[in-house]
Amino acid sequence: MSTIGDRIRSLHEELHEGVHLCAVSKFHPAEAVREAYDAGQRIFGESRVQELEAKIPELPSDILWHFIGHLQTNKVKKLISLRPAMIESVDSWRLLAAIDKEAEATGFVARVLLEVHVAEEETKTGFSHEEVLEYFGRQGFNDLKATHICGIMGMATNTDDEARIRSDFHRIADTFLAIRTLCGDSLIGFDTLSMGMSGDWRLAVDEGSNLVRIGSAIFGLRNY
Ligand SMILES: *Cc1c(COP(=O)(O)O)cnc(C)c1O
């Protein structure tokens, strides 16, 4: 049986230079995070504000916490007070504005990714390709006071169809590259493309991901 540490070390070996690993520790205890930390892992992903708040004081302060879950506007204040390294799951302009307002008020620069959806399912959260292109086309980010948009986060359709997963990642990468082309030098530090989870991260990296979010393949199955 491999341990959490073994799995972290083998992922670090397999991920090539420039592709970062976010170890998704949601629903797993602080001790599991500690094992991964001791194997050299520093970026961890959490999807609930309360759980993140509980874990932070139990763990080393040099951990870079990424928030990856759906964020309700009424939790923004608390999340910003926890000083996350990245909020990967900004899925509405209203949420972006709330983050920016709170970050400015508390003297913090929020680093965020915009979540885009490609899957046709109605329930998918996030922005469409057209919506984000329109925003960057008019340089909407110039209105932000204390928020830095560092890139895009996306998920492929939940399916066994590998061709479909690959084409979803391809489309998300397309959105990312289209924004960079559109904005050119007016957009600084827009360099993160977060795609890929336990079951599909190799395909995501093939399609250009430079941040993979891996949970169950490191920590095992979650008990919700
Ligand atoms: C839970 C979660 C992951 C990790 O999923 P695994 O399949 O366990 O690797 C990645 N990204 C997001 C947004 C998640 O909510």
Cofactors and ligands: pyridoxal-5'-phosphate
Sheet with most strands: 8 strands, parallel
Extended strand count: 8
In the predicted model, the low-confidence regions spanning at least 5 consecutive residues are: none
The share of residues in helices is 25-40%
Q: Number of helical runs?
A: 9
Mean pLDDT metric? 95
Shape descriptor: globular
- The Rg value, from CA coordinates, equals 17 Å
**Strand ordering within the main sheet:** 7-6-5-4-3-2-1-8
N-to-C SSE series?
HEHEHEHEHEHEHEHEH
Estimate the strand proportion: 15-25%
Structural class: alpha/beta
Distance between the termini: 23 Å
Key features?
alpha/beta, 224 residues, 39% helix, binds pyridoxal-5'-phosphate
How would you describe the overall organization of this protein?
The protein has 9 helices and 8 strands. With 224 residues, it is of the alpha/beta class. The protein has an 8-stranded parallel β-sheet with strand order 7-6-5-4-3-2-1-8. Helix 6 runs parallel beside helix 7. The longest helix has 22 residues. The two termini are 23 Å apart. The protein binds pyridoxal-5'-phosphate. Pyridoxal-5'-phosphate binds next to strand 8 and helix 9.
Write the layout of secondary structure elements.
Elements (H helix, E strand, L loop, with lengths): L3 H11 L5 E5 L5 H9 L4 E4 L2 H7 L8 E4 L8 H6 L4 E5 L2 H13 L4 E7 L12 H9 L9 E8 L7 H22 L8 E4 L5 H6 L4 E4 L1 H4 L5
Parallel strand pairs: 1-2, 1-8, 2-3, 3-4, 4-5, 5-6, 6-7
Helix pairs in contact: 6-7
Pyridoxal-5'-phosphate binds next to β8 and α9.
